[in-house]
Amino acid sequence: xxKKDTRAEIISIGMGLIxxxxxxxxxxxxxxxxxxVPKGSFYYYFGSKEEFGLAVxxxxxxxxxxxxxxxxxxxxxxxRNRIRNYLEHGxxxxxxxxxxxxxxxxxxxxELADQNERFRTRLDEIFRSWKERFAACLREAQRAGELxxxxxxxxxxxxxxxxxxxxxxRAKVMKSPQPLRDFIxxxxxxxxxx
Length: 194
Description:
Blueprint: H1 3-21, H2 28-35, H3 39-45, H4 49-72, H5 79-96, H6 104-112, H7 117-143, H8 153-174, H9 178-189
Helix pairs in contact: 1-2, 1-4, 4-7, 5-7, 5-9, 6-7, 7-8, 8-9
């Protein structure tokens, strides 16, 4: 296997394990055993577990940015419905996973924000970029007459992001998708009502 492929394989396996167990509970040996590579390979690609964790975060964020773009930039759908489609897709995904994984960035934010400044800073950057993607879609909604002209897209985007991440957390704790359903329904009959 090529070096680049081995690195990607380690990141992919690590991302899956961290999604299930958290960063601190996921040991390097666990990742390497599943990847079928020796410990020296890990340190060839990553100087430390922290560097590996940051690589996992970056990989997830890159993939998630593509997902957000697919939904929030879909010109076949009105801006308001782009947000609804994204949220409904998230609800379906979490339901399919029996409310067990949630959002890797949200999970790591809960676990690591108070423990590691490098992680906290990177996670905050990702949340800020997601907020801006929502705000851009909401500005389009304003131009299309789907959002009040005096509404602040940045504030609403922050509300959507915070509310959604909180609903994901509650769904995981309750082992029920109901908090997500409640969030979507309430969002569209109050903040994003027509």
